[in-house]
Amino acid sequence: MTCSSVRWIAALVVPVAIAHHGLRKGSLDRSGAAAGFLVGFLLTLANWTFLAMLLTFFLSSSKATKFRSKQKQKFEDDFKEGGQRNWRQVLCNGGAAAQFACLYMIECGCHEHPIDFHEHFHSSVLALAVLGSLAAANADTWASELGTVLARGQPRLITNLRKVPTGTNGGVSLAGTLASLLGGALVGLACWLTQLAALGDRSLATRPPQWPLVTVGLLAGLLGSTVDSLLGATLQFSGVTEKGVVVERPGTGVRPISGRPLLDNHSVNLLMTIVTGCLTPLLAHALWPAGLH
Question: Which residue ranges traverse the bilayer (predicted)?
């Protein structure tokens, strides 16, 4: 595996800038900044497209978290001003993408390759896995952070469509579903535009079209949010206190709503990004145009 000096420098400088920005804006605490540097280093070193997707996820999810934060404080038990993320949250959202990026570097080196299942099968599979995991993470964040405050009426539990309090794990709404689609599509758009810029028209002239990256990002976002909701509704406890605050742990005065206390929010996010990252290449392979060969 050989990487240019420009990539090494960028892989050191860019993650430091991201971590510093997160600390200054309150999006990350110190442990989150350290974990963010590690994730950013691996993704930047592997592929410029991976960096673009990471930046899209980090910046857009941070904005979504801060959107109407005072309103969220009323029903979120673990509310933090600015959505300050620690190392667990960073690794459970970006760790899967970092692992796929490591496999990409080992298998394909530190280069950009077009999505082409005929000529670049391994790089296509691993790049799509990175796209899937980051699109899912962004879509889930958009759904939970925007859907909860934009939805009209109470969400419904994904397993039985019963109305549940806002903030319940596994609760879905039309606003949240639309937000997840847009969040995933935005990561796919960043991936597509960076592919075009990094590879150029000549390299892509005889390759399959790259625009389906946007569609794949959208579908990966929907898939990730669905997996997250199913896990949350069944394996993650949700209860409501006497004050109407939704909590994730059983206790005195807590009325159970759904799920069992087997997983927490971090483990659900980790499983969701891994599952979506693994399934996205299969989804893309079924949808991708053949191109010119």
Answer: 35-59, 172-199, 211-233, 268-288
